[in-house]
Amino acid sequence: MGIEKREQIKYKIFHEQDINKLMDVFFSTEKELGHEETEVIYTIQFKDGTIASGSDRLTIDRNRSIQSVVFSLTNKSLHTSIAMNLHIDNAKNSSTYAVEGNHQEWVKEKSAQIQKIINATPNQNQYLAHPVWRTGLSILLVLLIFSFMYLLIENYLSSRAGYAWLIVAVLWAHFWTGRLLGNNLDTLYPKVDFDISIHRESKKRKQRAFLKLIVICFLIPLLVKFIVERMI
């Protein structure tokens, strides 16, 4: 019975050199085993729907954005396999790697090689990628929008219409933050991302910078203003 080690991959951004280093592990392992039944296969799916696959080293097309990368090494006679799945998908366990073999030391060695490469890749922004932090951010944004609307209509809160507008503001804030976190943040900050394309990823970086600018220059000062005015 083989020994298997399986790990999840979360909150990482893979560049072209990282993909190449992972590819090196698979092809160097194929050479080390030196067995005719050992097979290495890769599959790269791009966001435009096209797929590149094969069993030889590839040159990554930087003109297209990557959706997923899958590497596999198998040898049924030796009961040996290495599998890696990297996917821009926030579904549970969508990105993993697994090493299986008959010898524990070999499994540990190959797992360590892969994990070393993963650890060296840049970290994704966990505050905007992790679901718990996103929930906290959603609550914060609702409070910020509520504060803004409150400052605008606080002189009219003595009337029923004023309270009605305040309720509408809270509901709108909840809807708006839900759409923001459900769509934009999933796109901008997935648990696993690829920064390879010379076009789309550059656009993504600009969108991230714009989001940070809004938070720093508008939302945070607004919250501070609201808190200070309530304390005076």
Automatic annotation (TrEMBL):
<keyword id="KW-0472">Membrane</keyword>
<keyword id="KW-1133">Transmembrane helix</keyword>
<feature type="transmembrane region" description="Helical">
    <location>
        <begin position="132"/>
        <end position="151"/>
    </location>
</feature>
<feature type="transmembrane region" description="Helical">
    <location>
        <begin position="209"/>
        <end position="228"/>
    </location>
</feature>
<feature type="transmembrane region" description="Helical">
    <location>
        <begin position="163"/>
        <end position="181"/>
    </location>
</feature>
<protein>
    <submittedName>
        <fullName>Uncharacterized protein</fullName>
    </submittedName>
</protein>
<keyword id="KW-0812">Transmembrane</keyword>
